[in-house]
Specification:
Elements: H1 34-43, H2 49-61, H3 66-76, H4 80-89, E1 101-106, H5 109-113, H6 116-127, E2 140-145, E3 157-159, E4 162-164, H7 172-181, E5 195-196, E6 199-200, E7 209-215, E8 218-227, E9 230-236, E10 239-240, E11 245-247, E12 258-260, E13 281-286, E14 291-295, E15 303-307, E16 310-312
Parallel strand pairs: 1-2
Antiparallel strand pairs: 1-3, 3-4, 5-10, 6-13, 7-8, 8-9, 8-12, 9-11, 13-14, 14-15, 15-16
C-alpha cells in the first residue's frame, strides 16, 4: 500500500490515504476516487449541492485540488469556471494545501482592542510562520480573520473548530500543545459529553447489553462481527463517546466490518452513511427512545445519536 508521503494525485493530501482500501495494490496517481464519487452522488442534485460537495471534499483532502475541481465540474455537468468561482468566493475554501491543524486568530474590532494582535504575534512566534502560511512539517496553518462571531469572549482563537475564549499570550503554548495531542481526545470519567446508553437490536429488540463483561467499568454492548470469512464477538463500550472496544480477533485499520445481532443473527446495517468516511452506519435502538449509530469502518470515530429527532455527532 502506498504511504501518504508517496501518494500522488488526489491521494497526496487525503486524510485517509495511509490506510485507504481503494489504494491497496495500486501505484501512482489515482485520478478517480470512489469516496470522492460518493460525495458527488449524494449532494449533486440537492439545493446548494455544489457548496456541500466542496465542503466535504475539502474536509477529506485538506484543500480543493485542481483535479478535484475538474472532477466536480465533469460529474455535476457544471462549467469549470463556475466551480472555481464558488471555490474562490467563499473564504472557507482554500486552493492551497493546509496543515493538519488550522489556527484562526480573530483581529476584529472587539478582539483587536483586547489584545488580538499580541495573540497573533505570539502564535506566529511559536509556530515560526506568518498569517496565511503553513509550517514546514505541514502540522499547522495560521490565518487571521475579521470576526468569529463571539465578540464578547474575545480575544478568540479557533483551532480545528474548537473555540478558545479570552485568550492571553501565556495560553498560546498550551493551546498548540492541545492541538498536537488531539482536541477531540476525551476523558471518559470527567467529560460531560460522555454518558452511558443501553441498546437493543433494531430487528428483534433483544438487549445487546452484556453484564458478564465490562468495558470502561460498565456492561459491554456485545455483538457479532465478520471480516473476510472470519467470525467472532465484539464488545463495545456502552459510554457514548468512548471508542474503547474488545474483540475476538484483530481487525486492521480502515477495514469494513459486518455486524450481526447475537440473538436473531440479523445483520445490523443502516441506511445512513458515516459523516466522516462514507461507510455504512450500524444502528442500535436506545432504551427509552432514540437510536445510536456507529461507523462500520475499523478505526473511524464517526457516530451519531438521535434522541427525539435531535442528532448529536
Amino acid at each position: 500500500m502506498t504511504e501518504v508521503t508517496e501518494a500522488l494525485g488526489l491521494c497526496a493530501t487525503c486524510n485517509f490515504a495511509s490506510s485507504c482500501v481503494y489504494r491497496q495494490g495500486r501505484e501512482g496517481p489515482i485520478e478517480y476516487c470512489e469516496m470522492f464519487a460518493e460525495i458527488i452522488e449524494e449532494h449533486g442534485d440537492s439545493p446548494g449541492g455544489l457548496i456541500a460537495i466542496l465542503e466535504e471534499i475539502q474536509s477529506k483532502y485538506g484543500y480543493l485540488t485542481p483535479e478535484a475541481l475538474k472532477m466536480v465540474a465533469e460529474k455535476t455537468k457544471r462549467a469549470l469556471v463556475d466551480v472555481y468561482a464558488v471555490a474562490t468566493f467563499y473564504r472557507a475554501f482554500t486552493l492551497k494545501p493546509r496543515g493538519k491543524h488550522l489556527v484562526s486568530c480573530c483581529l476584529g474590532t472587539a478582539c483587536h482592542v483586547r489584545g488580538g494582535p499580541a495573540i497573533a504575534e505570539e502564535i506566529q512566534k511559536q509556530l515560526g510562520i506568518q498569517s496565511g502560511e503553513t509550517t514546514s512539517d505541514k502540522e499547522f496553518t495560521l490565518e487571521t480573520v475579521n470576526c468569529l462571531g463571539a465578540c464578547a469572549l474575545g480575544p478568540i482563537v479557533v483551532v480545528d473548530g474548537h473555540y478558545f475564549s479570552k485568550v492571553k499570550t501565556t495560553m498560546v503554548k498550551d493551546i498548540l500543545q492541545k492541538a498536537r495531542a488531539g482536541l477531540d481526545t476525551v476523558e471518559i470519567h470527567t467529560d460531560q459529553r460522555i454518558f452511558p446508553v443501553e441498546v437493543c437490536c433494531p430487528r428483534c429488540y433483544h438487549t445487546l447489553m452484556d453484564s458478564r463483561h465490562l468495558v470502561d467499568g460498565l456492561p459491554a454492548i456485545t455483538i457479532n462481527m465478520a471480516l473476510d470469512g472470519e467470525y467472532g464477538w465484539l464488545r463495545l463500550s456502552s459510554l457514548y463517546g468512548s471508542f474503547n472496544i474488545e474483540a475476538e480477533f484483530n481487525v486492521p485499520p480502515n477495514k469494513l466490518v459486518n455486524f450481526f445481532c447475537p440473538h436473531c443473527h440479523a445483520e445490523l446495517l443502516g441506511a445512513s452513511n458515516c459523516p466522516e468516511c462514507r461507510a455504512k452506519m450500524v444502528p442500535m435502538i436506545v432504551r427509552g427512545g432514540g437510536i445510536v449509530q456507529i461507523c462500520s469502518r475499523r478505526g473511524c470515530k464517526g457516530h451519531m445519536l438521535d434522541l427525539a429527532g435531535t442528532i448529536t455527532y
